[in-house]
Design goal:
By secondary structure, the chain is mostly helical. It is built from 5 helices and 3 strands. GO terms for molecular function: ubiquitin protein ligase activity; zinc ion binding.
Length: 176
């Protein structure tokens, strides 16, 4: 006689594997749709790698070339703030307490190296890798420090900054 042979215990893993494959396909479709629309990469395929810093974001001229008809690819305020905030090498930073080797970027948690390009915020004096802060500003449209939430633009320049944002927004609206 013997026992009936049944492999029902293999049915659940097979269904689970098919479900995972389907979810992976949906994720790929959504990621491709975001790239076609010119939206930031919300679904990061490669988390922070072992390199010392994140890859540089696309330059504004390259992005403008590929997305001329999309006026909201990089927000106007983020582009203007990027022009105002200074970019220097970490080795050029003249501040006591820096350069001890224990300083790290609060966004990516990588230590600063002498040749890293950094942005120093003028209001709060925090420093970040340029690519980390650019992603924060342009990818997520944030206009405050990632650590203390102090606005990027000093109070005395805020009115002039807002006027420039409005004028550039109107120029973009007229050109489309």
């Amino acid at each position: 006689m013997g026992y009936p042979v049944g492999y029902t215990e293999l049915l659940l893993p097979r269904i689970f594997l098919h479900l995972l494959s389907l979810l992976g396909l949906i994720r790929t479709l959504i990621d491709t749709g975001f790239r076609i629309l010119g939206l930031p990469d919300f679904l990061e395929s490669d988390p922070v790698s072992s390199s010392s810093s994140w890859p540089e974001p696309p330059s504004m001229s390259t992005a403008a070339h590929h997305h001329q008809e999309s006026s909201f690819f990089f927000p106007v305020a983020a582009r203007l703030a990027g022009k105002i905030l200074p970019v220097i090498r970490f080795s050029e930073l003249n501040r006591p307490g820096f350069g001890s080797g224990s300083d790290c970027c609060a966004v990516c948690l990588h230590e600063f190296e002498n040749e890293d390009k950094i942005r120093r915020l003028t209001n709060c004096q925090h420093i970040f890798h340029r690519s980390c802060l650019d992603r924060w500003m342009m990818g997520y449209n944030q206009m405050t420090c990632p650590l203390c939430r102090t606005p990027f633009i000093p109070d005395e320049l805020q009115v002039a900054f807002n006027q420039r944002v409005w004028s550039e927004s109107e120029l973009l609206a007229e050109s489309t």
